[in-house]
# Entry
Amino acid sequence: MERTKKIYIAFLGNPRFDSRITNLSNSLREDGCKISVLGFDWFISKEDYSDDEIKIYSIKKSKISFFFYLQFAYILINELIRSNADIYFAEDLYTLPFVTTIAKIKKAKIVYNSREIYAHLGGLRNRPALQKIVKLIEKYFIRKVDLVLTTGPLDSKFIENLYNIKDTLVVRNIPLYQKAVSKIDLRKKYNIDPDKLILIYQGVILPGRGLKQIISAVAKLPKTVLIIFGEGEQKDNFIELANKLNISDRIIFAGSIDQKELINYTAGGDAGLSLIENISISYYHALPNKLFEYIMAGLPVLCSDLPQMKEVIEKYDVGESINMENEENISTTLKRWCENTSLLEVYKKNCETASEELNWQAEYKKVRKRLFDI
# Structure
């Protein structure tokens, strides 16, 4: 009888709010694997968390990044040394050097989940020296792993060319096939008038995600309300913007929702927004999980006309993509949606059909085939 495989997953973030880790862990567990997940939180939880599978350390984000990463590295190294697994997952670039080094010592297999083009993140676009350092680190360690996962075809092609590697595996950030069995009545929960169009933004609150433009558009459209499911370092700036525009009553910061419950909240909206700005190669390649989560929840999607997102929207006819260089495109499209709810019903119906293809159960088959062969 084949021995149960032990899987260790390390992530600089809270895995309880990360759909990619949640879905992967659940599928591996169903395949009979023993799962251990290590995460870090500096936004949501002020206390450490642990259960049978997950351990999350709450670490303080200081103004000096060096001390934050020193604390993170110290905890991660100690946990990895104490761990015992057959396959280690480095769920981002930040964990990659530590996971790779210690897994090699333990003679275990290594999977690198390249979620972004890290050397070309939006936050590094004006920092060429740091870009070069990131690229050197990734180039060195990526060649030591057994399998590289990416989130889209453009990322795979770019990384393979950049680091002269082959056989990366595209695993899109696609949700489980499920329906909202306990849909939250957002109008009742947040006291929203029935004639308002409820717009949903979910994900980390960061620059480059179109939030400034979205909030400005909502200010021009009194029949809209924006609910933001997520946290981030820029949250206070956007609260200030909403106050400045006198629309704080129509911009609701709802915080992060546990991944298991998120679809019930998302399904309570009328439309989902994924308006990523073209400020870096990483963002240009964007194919975010929120796009697919909106579709699974039955929400029409308004997204940027970046190539991979636009392709999904047009293929399944589940919404519209717009050029983000002209901010007026957001308010113009949303105004039309407010006035033409029958169009939204068409998009919603198409979401049902699309979700039968765009689901994690189908995506995981690719992972399973490669993972247990490494």
Observations:
- The first strand starts at residue 6 and ends at 10.
